[in-house]
Amino acid sequence: MASNSSLPRPVRMTEEDLLTAWEVISPHGDDVLTKSQLLDSLRLFFPHITARDVKQLVGPGNLSLDKLRELLFHTQTPDSAFTDPNWEAFKIIDPHGTGYVEMNVLKRLLMQLPGVDMIDDDDVEFLHKLVDVDGDGRISFRDWAQVGSWAPDVELPSEALRKLMLEKLAKEGVERM
């Protein structure tokens, strides 16, 4: 078993990260979000979040970019705020803190993302092979953290399979890029 030193180190949260977070929770470009709007946005990532949770997070009033900045950097300056993005992402897909994620949970969360219309069983199997680094049949934080730190071995399709895939795409009217 690898030591903790093999896990990615926390990175500094920047103003650009803050602006990206705001774009995600305020996709329509609003300057201020009501707690209800914030709840709707956060439910994409945290399906079990409640209005009470949002009220505790935001405190009195609505949420603006400045208030988000203050909440995130409340006792720190942006230059000294560190976080581990892998851990933060893993907490989203493991909301109950079990330490492991089932593929059906990951699939459900991915289906809630804007622009994702369908994920079939082949997609789930591919994701499972990609993310379950240690091959134990479940996704742990260690698996999750390693996905971003190395290029996994992905089996390339045989020439025959590639030809069949291209024929299928051609039948569906998809042009080759």
Automatic annotation (TrEMBL):
SUPFAM superfamilies referenced in this protein's UniProt entry, alphabetically: EF-hand
Keywords per UniProt: Calcium
InterPro entries hit by this protein: EF-hand-dom_pair, EF_Hand_1_Ca_BS, EF_hand_dom
Pfam families linked: EF-hand_7
Record-annotated EF-hand domain positions: 119-154
Key word rRNA processing present: no
One MF annotation (Gene Ontology) recorded for this entry: calcium ion binding
Calcium in keyword set: yes
Protein name (record): EF-hand domain-containing protein
Species per Swiss-Prot/TrEMBL record: Chlamydomonas euryale
Top-level taxonomy: Eukaryota, Viridiplantae, Chlorophyta, core chlorophytes, Chlorophyceae
